[in-house]
């Protein structure tokens, strides 16, 4: 083990060479003026093909390394935010706390509004918004060029994606909290002066803004054929709209949008779900609707260990394996998965041993995930270049089922749920639930299993007004992480970062979310 740690430390030292962004290069908050008027005029005179650079820059930012300039190894793009959110909840267990950059997320010790860890989420999402604004400012609003209109649609959908995250991170569920403060709204027309005196908009106003963007994007993207799944197309925009409607409890609208999004896509087969070469690491997967395309020369890949396979992949070389910082499924959720369900094979059993070709290959930790496969199936290989799923068709099946259940068609919801689970996950599955609320509970369970580790569990707890349960008989949470949070506990809200308060006079200390601390362990 000493040799393993020496190798890890050497990689850690080398990886700092890739942490080149500074706070000067990445300002505390997008100003709304990162592209000058003259630059706008130059860009709009370009042929549409030249605009691809701005679009590609927007998508590349989803994999941006070290956006705060801190050098933290938790900053490798959107998957970083996903891992943090998963660890805040009750379904992902961190099996060690020694060489662990994400341990503060599991025990809520990094929640200060001066915390770089918390500022990271704000900065990444606002950086993406700024990239979307660069596109929107570069396209004349009265253009009739189909390519430019499609670029506008992608930028609007990306902005909606970011605000959909922000409103859920900094406010409680939509229902019952419509008038609560959420986050300031920035548009491509917001000036530096306006951004510097921009109060928190209400939850309702932020959702109105999201719906406006997505409705426009769906129109803008009509007929558009994207160059790759890393881009947003019309069906992805419908999928984002389905997510927003689900949060708003507009059940029929959610079901309709999810159906439009999933049309033409087919869920992964059982074999595809656990495939060692392409399982949850390849954007070409037929069920992936949208994803981050990480190639071998991407900056976060070149770091060696500052990337999601390093922290999340049990079978990849990096922090999880070399530092024994495995991300495991909670025992209670693992036990709830039927043995005939193929998804159970995405996790090690209680012996913590990974078997290859039926023979013990390596020891990890009980219930460690092997869902996210190593690049090209090369166990402990030299490259951590796995792609990341941003939207899969399976999610749309589950949104549609929930929308039907609560929207007046529980029998249709039950039939759709059984069609999905029986057809693609567990041939012996039957849905015992029949009432709308019981169906919602069953669909939530299916979401917990199907979407484990992909960034949905924390938001589901919030929208369903659930608490977390980590302390139970047989729990595999470490003793120092066995917090049970009641529904809508203060820790379900992130605090507006101090840097935003200092630069935005529209938000004062008094306007921030209250300070929250965990309850006593085990209570």
Q: What brief labels describe this structure?
A:
two-stranded antiparallel sheet, 21 helices, two-stranded antiparallel ribbon, globular
Describe what you observe in this structure.
The chain has 523 residues and is mainly alpha-helical. 43% of the residues lie in helices and 5% in strands. The protein is built from 21 helices and six strands. It has helices at residues 2-15, 37-44, 52-60, 78-88, 103-107, 116-138, 146-170, 192-195, 203-220, 234-248, 251-262, 270-273, 299-302, 308-312, 319-322, 331-336, 393-406, 410-424, 436-450, 457-463, 498-503, and strands spanning 92-94, 288-292, 327-329, 353-356, 359-363, 388-392. The strands form three sheets. Strands 1-3 form a two-stranded antiparallel ribbon. A hairpin with a 2-residue loop joins β4 (353-356) and β5 (359-363). α3 (52-60) packs antiparallel against α6 (116-138) and α10 (234-248) packs antiparallel against α11. The chain is globular. It starts with a helix and ends in a 20-residue tail after the last helix.
């Amino acid at each position: 083990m000493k040799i393993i740690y020496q190798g890890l430390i050497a990689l850690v030292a080398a990886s700092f060479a890739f942490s080149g962004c500074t706070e000067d290069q990445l300002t505390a908050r997008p100003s709304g003026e990162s592209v000058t008027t003259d630059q706008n005029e130059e860009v709009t005179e370009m042929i549409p093909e030249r605009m691809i650079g701005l679009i590609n820059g927007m998508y590349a930012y989803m994999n941006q390394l070290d956006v705060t300039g801190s050098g933290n190894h938790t900053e490798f793009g959107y998957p970083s935010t996903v891992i943090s959110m998963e660890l805040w909840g009750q379904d992902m267990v961190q099996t060690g706390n020694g060489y662990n950059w994400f341990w503060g997320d599991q025990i809520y010790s990094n929640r200060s509004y001066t915390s770089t860890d918390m500022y990271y989420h704000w900065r990444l999402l606002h950086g993406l918004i700024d990239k979307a604004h660069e596109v929107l400012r570069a396209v004349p609003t009265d253009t009739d060029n189909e390519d430019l209109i499609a670029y506008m649609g992608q930028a609007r959908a990306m902005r909606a994606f970011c605000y959909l995250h922000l409103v859920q991170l900094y406010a409680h569920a939509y229902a019952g909290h419509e008038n609560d403060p959420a986050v300031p709204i920035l548009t491509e027309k917001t000036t530096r002066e306006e951004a510097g005196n921009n109060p928190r908009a209400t939850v309702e106003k932020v959702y109105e803004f999201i719906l406006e963007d997505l409705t426009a994007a769906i129109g803008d993207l009509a007929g558009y054929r994207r160059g790759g799944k890393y881009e947003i197309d019309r069906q992805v925009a419908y999928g984002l709209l389905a997510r927003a409607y689900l949060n708003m409890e507009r059940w029929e609208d959610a079901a309709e949008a999810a159906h439009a999004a999933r049309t033409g896509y087919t869920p992964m087969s059982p074999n595809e779900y656990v495939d060692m070469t392409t399982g949850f690491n390849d954007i070409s997967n037929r069920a992936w609707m949208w994803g981050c395309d990480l190639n071998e020369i991407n900056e976060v890949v070149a770091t060696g260990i500052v990337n999601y396979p390093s922290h999340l992949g049990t079978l990849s070389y990096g922090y999880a394996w070399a530092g024994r910082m495995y991300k495991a499924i909670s025992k209670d959720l693992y036990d709830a998965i039927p043995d005939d369900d193929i998804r159970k094979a995405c996790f090690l059993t209680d012996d913590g041993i990974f078997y290859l070709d039926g023979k013990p290959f390596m020891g990890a930790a009980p219930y460690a995930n092997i869902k996210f496969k190593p690049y090209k199936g090369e166990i402990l290989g030299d490259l951590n270049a796995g792609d990341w799923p941003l939207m899969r068709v399976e999610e749309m099946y589950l949104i549609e089922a929930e929308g039907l259940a609560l929207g007046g068609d529980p029998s249709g919801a039950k039939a759709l749920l059984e069609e999905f689970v029986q057809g693609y996950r567990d041939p012996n599955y039957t849905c015992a639930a029949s009432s709308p609320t019981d169906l919602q509970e069953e669909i939530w369970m299916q979401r917990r299993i199907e979407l484990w580790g992909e960034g949905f569990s924390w938001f589901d707890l919030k929208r369903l007004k659930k608490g977390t349960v980590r302390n139970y008989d047989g729990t595999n949470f470490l003793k120092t992480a066995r917090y049970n949070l009641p529904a809508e506990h203060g820790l379900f809200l992130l605090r507006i970062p101090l840097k935003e308060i200092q630069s935005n006079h529209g938000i004062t200390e008094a306007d921030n979310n209250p300070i929250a601390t965990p309850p006593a362990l085990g209570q």
